[in-house]
TrEMBL record:
Domain (MOSC): residue spans on this chain: 27-164
This protein's name: MOSC domain-containing protein
PANTHER family documented for this protein: PROTEIN YIIM (PTHR30212)
InterPro entries, alphabetized: Benzoxazolinone_Detox_Enz (IPR052353), MoCF_Sase_C (IPR005302), Pyrv_Knase-like_insert_dom_sf (IPR011037)
PROSITE patterns recorded: MOSC
Length: 215
């Protein structure tokens, strides 16, 4: 299975709210771009405690979701930007229900592996100047996900994102997000314990779940 990459995006740290910095504003890059174990070359993180690192190297927020958000918040100018939600990859035709934990994809010459869904934060609402977007993400499961980089390489707009290895059967990003942060079902401690045993899961997220279970 393959999907065309419409854009690769990166952002620089910049003033965001008061003294707070953020690099959530990602812009499309021209030409070949290096994909390293820490992500897309030129992409920065202003809060290394909560963002970035090998298990948050590459973020994909489905471009298909932009239409959903137009229905929710109107024709906001940011929705024309492929990196509006902090995404490094702009791809259509693939969403959280299609993507399995541990699936590996060829991105240009790089090989990337799905390792966790994205938990939304207040910066999305501040960026769009619109309240209740986080609540909508939690209820709808339109979260996006992160890849770690297995093999470094280069990629550019127009390349194909190609599935090379299926991940863990049944463990979609949609299911994981709902189990961890979703709103339609009560939290299931046994399911959370099962999730902590999934080998491809990001280690930092695994640790957070274990702390949550011990609380």
């Amino acid at each position: 299975m393959t999907w065309q990459v419409e854009a690769l995006c990166a952002g620089r740290r910049q003033s965001f709210r008061g003294d707070t910095l953020s690099a959530i504003a990602k812009l499309a890059l021209d030409g070949p771009v290096a994909i390293t174990r820490l992500g897309v070359a030129g992409d920065e993180q202003a809060d290394p405690v909560h963002h970035g690192g090998p298990d948050m190297a590459v973020h994909l927020y489905p471009r298909d979701h932009h239409a959903f958000w137009r229905d929710q918040i109107g024709d906001h100018e940011l929705l024309d930007n492929p990196g509006a939600f902090g995404s490094n990859l702009s791809v259509r035709g693939i969403t959280e229900g299609d993507v399995l934990l541990g699936s590996r994809y060829r991105l240009g010459s790089a090989l990337i592996e799905v390792c966790q869904p994205r938990q939304p934060c207040w910066k999305i609402e501040h960026r769009f100047g619109t309240k209740k977007m986080v609540k909508t993400i939690l209820a709808s499961g339109r979260c996006g996900w992160f890849y770690r980089v297995i093999e470094e390489g280069t990629a550019q707009a127009g390349d194909m994102l190609r599935l090379e290895h299926e991940g863990l059967p049944g463990w979609t990003m949609a299911r994981l997000f709902e189990a961890l942060w979703g709103t339609s079902e009560p939290t299931d401690p046994e399911l959370l314990r099962e999730i902590t045993q999934l080998p491809p899961l990001a280690d930092k997220l695994r640790g957070k779940i274990m702390v949550r279970l011990d609380a």
